[in-house]
């Protein structure tokens, strides 16, 4: 939790608001959000309301916070909750606002094949991600990022921008820049069904999909009726297999250095890291040691 730790090191943090503990894993045990764990290590009060209702407002007001700082909370704040904070609220958003407003800008940037994204610090407004920009810093993408790795990198990159904005608020030096509504684009919530691989798609699109949906919901297909997640893939860089019409999803062969070659609707996708449901993730060599995968097998076939 780089932002929380940086704020606590430089300013007085009076409390942390986060989602309730959630059931997860095969044993369905309650798991605390990482930000809660980080807050408790610093002995900070933690609020985990199911709803931002009157009771939640009373508990938040009792903390006496002057500024609300938000990162990936996933809920909209109403005017009554925002009125609790004399300096209002600011939000860290991982996109070049007004581009990619919404709940999944990191995955959306990877899916779109963007060459760069950004960290934006904005005023919290009643309309989603529409507040004035207080700071914005570009972040280059090299085409190897997963949602997990990019989230971690942007969390670190956000720290100096966040600290600078908070200091500017304290010193009264803000220079807010209104967003241009005509330039706004939006991304949608990610659903588990979004991870289903449609092999008739282009290989380049599927490769981005594998990265965008790692770690959740994971790009998924099936093999012999069993759900199979593809955690790492690449585009074929060696000469293509022999020409001939192949059903998308057909296993064309195995390159012992690259991976499992699969026909798509346009090009060949190389599967490098795979995982059956409830099993551990395996590189393709280890995967093939335990699975008899015949050339001509069609992945995703019912």
Task: Note the main attributes of this structure.
8 helices, single chain, Rossmann fold, alpha+beta, Methionyl-tRNA Fmet Formyltransferase, Chain A, domain 2, four-stranded mixed sheet, 302 residues
Average pLDDT figure: 94
Number of strands: 14
CATH top-level class of the largest domain: Alpha Beta
**Gyration radius over CA:** 23 Å
Q: How much helicity do the residues have?
A: 25-40%
Strand content: 15-25%
Supply the CATH superfamily name of the largest domain: Formyl transferase, N-terminal domain
Q: What does the main sheet amount to?
A: 6 strands, antiparallel
Structural class: alpha+beta
Number of discrete domains: 2
Following the backbone from N to C, one meets helices and strands in this order, namely HEEEHEHEHEHEEHHEEEEEEH
Number of helices: 8
**Poorly predicted runs of 5 or more residues:** none
Instruction: Tell me the span between the first and last alpha carbons.
Output: 43 Å
Shape: elongated
Looking at CATH, which topology of the largest domain would you report?
Answer: Rossmann fold
What oligomeric arrangement do these chains adopt?
single chain
* Annotated CATH architecture of the largest domain: 3-Layer(aba) Sandwich
TL;DR of this structure?
This protein is α+β, with helices and mostly antiparallel strands. The chain contains eight helices and 14 strands.
